Amino acid sequence: MRKVGILGGTFDPPHNGHLLIANEVLFALELDEIWLMPNREPPHKEKSGAVTNDNRLQMLNLAIQGNPAFQIQPIELERTGPSYTVDTMKLIHSRYRDHQFYFIIGADMIEYLPKWHKIDELIELVQFVGVDRPSYSCQTEYPILYVDVPSMEISSSMIRDRLKCGRTVRYLLPESVIHFIEENHLYGT
Q: Which of 22, 37, 60, 153 has its Cα between 20 and 30 A from that of 70?
């Protein structure tokens, strides 16, 4: 049975914090691979509208180049409507019956778990893996494995704001992603 970690997000843009989390969980839990799964319409967030789904996929491909353990799982982009994790995981389970899934979430989402759509059903489908984020609590009654990840206070919204203001994002994003953003004039560049 393959052990697969899933890191979902808008990846608008994908940054070094995403990559650090994925890599730390990969090795800490001795997983076979990590699937980065961009959402179409996360029910808990407003979509920035700054880039297309194709742009996000291209940036994500650039970000994971050179790491064969990282794959992109575009299943949520293939669906329409809000991206409820329980629906996605049912679909993934039907396609990959010989896999065990570890769903990676930050402490901000750990706090939000009681509000997740059909959470009791979801915890039967995946093993949640929690990673710490500054200013959030990791306390929950739900079964979660914790992985200690070096703290990086980076968010996609902070990066978008910096780009819009013409500030540097060097070392926050992979260089290939920075070049893509500049070449395609994304986020006000």
A: 153
Class of domain 2-151: alpha beta
| Cα–chain center distance at 107 | 13
pLDDT (tens digit, 9 = 90+) per residue, 86-138? 999 999 999 999 999 999 998 888 888 999 999 999 999 999 999 976 666 67
Residues 6+ apart with CB under 8 A from 58: 180
CA distance 62 to 173: 11
Per-domain residue ranges for the chain? Answer: 2-151
Backbone angles phi, psi at 32, to 5 degrees: -80, -35
Summary count for the chain: helices (H), strands (E)? 8, 6
Distance (Å, whole) CA 185 – CA 126 = 38
